[in-house]
Amino acid sequence: MSNEHAHAPAHDDDEHNPHLAHHFDTMGQQTAAAKLGMWLFLATEILMFSGLFLAYFILRMFYPEMVLEAHEYLSKWAGGINTVVLLTSSYTMALGVRSIQLGDVKKLRLMLVLTILCGCIFMVVKYFEYSAKFEHGMLPGKFYSAHLHGYEIDGLPHIFFGVYFMMTGLHGIHVAIGLAIMLWMFVRAGRGEFNAKNYVAIENTGLYWHLVDLIWIFLFPLLYLVK
Amino acid sequence: MSTAVQSHDPHPATEPSYLVSKRGLMSWLVTVDHKRLGLMYLASVMFFFLIAGILAIALRTELFTPDQDFMSAQTYNQVFTLHGAIMVFLFIIPSVPAALGNFLLPLMLGAKDVAFPRLNLLSFYVYSVAAVFLIVAILTSGLDTGWTFYTPYSTSTGTAVITATTGVFIAGFSSILTGLNFVVTVHKMRAPGMNWNRMPLFVWAIYSTAVIQVLATPVLAITLLLLIIERSLGIGIFDPAMGGDPVLFQHFFWFYSHPAVYIMILPGFGIISEIITVHSRKHIFGYKAIALSSVAIAVISFVVWGHHLFVSGQSELAGVLFSFLTFAVGVPTAIKVFSWVATLYKGSIQYNTACWYGMAFLWTFTVGGLTGLPLSTLAIDVHLHDTYFVVAHFHYVMVGGTVVAFIGGLHHWWPKMTGKMFNETAGKIGCLLVFIGFNVTFMTQFFLGHQGMPRRYYAYLPEYQTMHQVSTIGSWILAAGLLWTLIYLVHSLFKGEKAPSNPWGGVSLEWETQSPPIEHNFHDTPHVHGSPYDFPEIDKSGGSAHH
Amino acid sequence: MLFSLLIAPAAAEAALPPSNPGTPPMSDSPWSLLPAASANAEALDSLYIFFWILCGIAFVGMIGVQAYFMWKYKKPAEGHAKTSPLTHNGKLEFIWSAIPTFFFVILFAWGEIEYMKQVTPPPDAMDVRVTGQKWSWTIEYPEVKGCSLTNDLYVPVGQPMRLTMTSLDVIHSFYLPAFRLKKDVVPGRYTVLWFEATKPGLYPLMCTEYCGDEHSSMVGRVHVVAQEEYDAVLAKACELKQGDTESTEDFGARVVTRGGCASCHTTDGTVKTGPSFKGLFGKTETLSDGSTVTVDENYIRESILEPNAKIVSGFSPQMPSFAGRFDDKQIAALIAYIKAQK
After folding, report:
1. In A, which residues are within 8 Å of B169 by CB distance?
2. What pTM did the predictor assign?
3. What is the CATH architecture assignment of B25-511?
4. Per the database record, which ranges form the Heme-copper oxidase subunit III family profile domain (chain A) (predicted)?
């Protein structure tokens, strides 16, 4: 850490770096702080979702047959395609981080576009899945009306679809936020804000996107592939 | 603390303080300076403390007679709900961390600011939005669920539950962001030489608190989200009529809200460690024990939530386990109290207002801690659960603990924050009124509770009247003390003497900069070479017990 | 208002042995303990007293040491005294961690032993069903056919009782301070509470889980009576017929007590969750849909059997139906009672 006077003429490269905020002494300190902050944020995300997972497991414990029967109405194909799409997007995101570490802004932007594209495919598939559920009256809670559309599911399927929509809905919101962030990163990369020495924002975006992917990796088998 | 920088200001009056370095309303509204944000939080939490305090006085006054007096049942229920919700979510939780913590943490660490100043500003506005939601809830149809929002009452009542819980949900995010910011600040922003063993105990306490904020609050968020969805869509997770489990909500809620109790009290512990050492000119007794017991309390706080469900019909095994774990919290808490008392030994105790509050804390918090024991004892809790005994116990911890420490801390750091000295005599009168009023109000409630007086009754059996009246009179004394305190503190802003940079002779870093500090805290990055409790009065010649 | 709840109407109290004049059972003195009227209460009071002695010693000791230090080590008038360099002491810290731990283990174990007794009903316990609803307790005795009491629990001395409890709406909590017992009453599931009363008398029964507007009025009575009188007392309490010399209004008053009507309807004009009975009969009320209705026999009858059919504006649909619980004669008496509240 620098023990020079904060307003004294700078003596190392960091002090020239336009990306160094006033309250940090070095770029290393700034990057480490941003990364630690991101990891903590991811921890809070996992804890938030864990509450929903807990609700899911309690539902399954209470009504195992109903969950088994109701899950048959979820499209394994749609879920499977989305899993592949998200895994691919994580891969392109990782490639994007790698590119900027090597200073290749052009490749970074390409990878961001590919990741955004995958995210959009995910959302489109989700849209078709949701509209099918809406049409069949498989709605959460008191809006559940599948029996009026000729689907008889024993037990209390309105809770299953309540939990299904909450979990995938909250996850979907995270995907949407991720897309917005990546778009912003794409713009910032275009303005030349990132280079091989300053890429922590890209790295954090990547971490966030991997988390969104990871949560889906849990959601898919729990909701679509119950046995 | 011995540092490379001299205690006297090497740049006399060359730089304006943070209060005047920039001018105009906008310079405050968009500030990223942790000190200004601390003051903005301070003003906000004080405002909500006043509102919720007025509600409390209204409640106590209604309870002066056994019958319904000036409030209808519905009004009473709304008033106690809002008293609790505002006190917990808008006052106590942000009080010490967001107000004093924001101001002091970077100063004590020798940093220029917190790690993420813009996030800090965002937290403040998130908190403000939350407050707006709660105010809208009050102004529309109110809230009558109790601050705990138990289902199925909260999913069936006609009041503005969704608006209010959305407010609390948002307040949770403010708390998470502040906690995250502080954890990173403590890890990454310490001045050179400031290793973990040299951090002031206030920093340790804020750090433990921040960890709980980060880990527990997301669960509150999802719980309230589930409640909101349950109420709007009726998914049936908590509603027994739809196949759900109403007690599940209590598990979810207390998984957050019990750790939240420690979010409220741990920062108070930190303040007391600072006050007692500085005003007795002694090194803290058992630095490591106090620091690690904060961490231990933070960890154990996550596994004791079930003691709120002792009579809910949870399994006996769960009851026994939670009872045992609850006792386990008692040990680190006892260690702290003993260490504070031992710190006074062979000190040179200066009876300042802040010191008076520290001494008052030892009394009130000890009562609060000891009365937690019968509540953790399963069989006795069955009798005392949801009676005034519980009300008295948590007020001893929350008010006698946190609020007394908070006011004490406010006096301790008032000269640093405002650059003005308050009147010591006025301060002591205020402290005495608060101490007497508080004990009269809540000591009686232990007896009421033991005699079987249930919580949340607007009308009660007449044999409880005597004690209720004593309690009500106590609450008026307490209110008078707090108002008096507010008046002389505000008065000092305009008429107070100019404060020196180190009025009490503290040796932690915040006393080394001028009062009030400059915008970037220190002219030179401080270097730390020793303990934050190494006072010049300590007799080093014959240090027999110095291992 | 609540006082009158504990002093039940004379007719109901006549069933009690003369030794129980029906006064509130708890002491007026703020310092005396509650009556301990069950085996559990006596056992718990010993634990409780042990706890207070322990905490008293701890508190006095700690505050004593603190006060002594504050007096002894007060700063001199001028300057500061030299202070001790003491920073820690391993032995002392171990001792003051170990001693509380030791006592905590004792308290925990003692509390746990008593708790297991509290939650294990003996096999010969007599069954009672309790149903909580906003804002009254319905008490039913399986062995007395059709007996459904409101807010009155009759138990014989020395007989273990096992209450199986549930709620119709929100969570309530069934609290018997004189027995040192409580248990939440949860909708959609059954919870169990058992006790053995040891002293005849009249004791309060309260709700301790906040359940809405009239939570404070969800107060009932536990009548502990001698074994040999129990059957007669219970039969008398269960019976709800007009006495030969009893006026219809007086009988109506008993019906009101049985129905727990007072938790929402007053007779002094105060408006609680429901309208006051005072001056109610013959009034013209505006309904929530804007139409008007005159409070006559038919409207009252309908309001008892189908309470939420016509809600007077300003009130919310909170009242449970009494269809099947009151017969025609009882309803007629109730109407007569309301008529008499001018």
Report:
1. none
2. 0.89
3. Up-down Bundle (1.20)
4. 35-227
Partner-chain contact A23 B111, CB within 8 Å: yes
Residues C320, C195 within the same domain: no
The reply to whether C327 touches chain B by the CB within 8 Å rule is no
* Contact state of A163 with B188 under an 8 Å Cβ cutoff: no
DSSP secondary structure string, B57-112?
A: HHHHHHTTSSS--SS-HHHHHHHHHHHHHIIIIIIIHHIIIIIIIHHHHHHHHT-S
Which residues in chain C (231-260) have CB-CB distances under 8 A to chain B? none
* Residue percentage of chain C with pLDDT more than 70: 90
Report strand pairing: C152-156 vs C219-225: parallel
The rounded distance, in Å, linking the Cα atoms of C336 and C330 is: 10
How many pairs of residues across A and B have Cβ atoms under 8 Å apart? 132
Only one residue has tokens 């005795």, namely C141
Alpha-carbon distance B188 to nearest alpha carbon in chain A (angstroms): 6
- CA distance, residue A48 to nearest chain B CA (Å): 5
Question: CB A6 to CB B524 under 8 A?
Answer: yes
Closest residue in B to A56 (Cα–Cα) = B237
Largest interatomic CA distance in chain C: 92
Q: Domain span at residue C178?
A: 1-74+121-239
**Banded model confidence at residue B344, pLDDT cuts 50, 70, 90:** very high
> Are the beta carbons of B538 and C182 separated by less than 8 Å?
no
| Residues C231 and C152 placed together within one structural domain of the fold | yes
* pLDDT for the residue A15: 54
Buried b / exposed e over C90-116, threshold 16 CB at 10 Å, is eebbeebbeebeebbeebbebbbebbe
Of A99-108, B341-350, C44-53, C254-263, the one with minimum mean pLDDT is C254-263
Closest Cα in chain C, distance from residue B16 (Å): 32
Residues of B in contact with C7 (CB under 8 A): none
Residues 435-474 in B contacting C (C-alpha not used; CB under 8 Å): 444, 447, 450-452, 454-463, 466-467, 470
How many structural domains is chain A composed of?
A: 1
Name the domain boundary from C209, C239, C269: C239
Q: Is residue A79 part of a domain?
A: yes
In this predicted model, what pLDDT tens digit does every residue of B247-299 receive, in sequence order?
889 998 998 889 989 999 999 999 999 999 999 999 999 999 998 998 899 88
What does the pLDDT look like over B310-339, one tens digit per residue? 999 888 899 999 999 999 999 999 999 999
Instruction: State the ipTM, two decimals.
Output: 0.88
Domain containing residue A117: CATH number: 1.20.120.80
What is the pLDDT at residue C26?
55
**pLDDT > 90? residue B238:** no
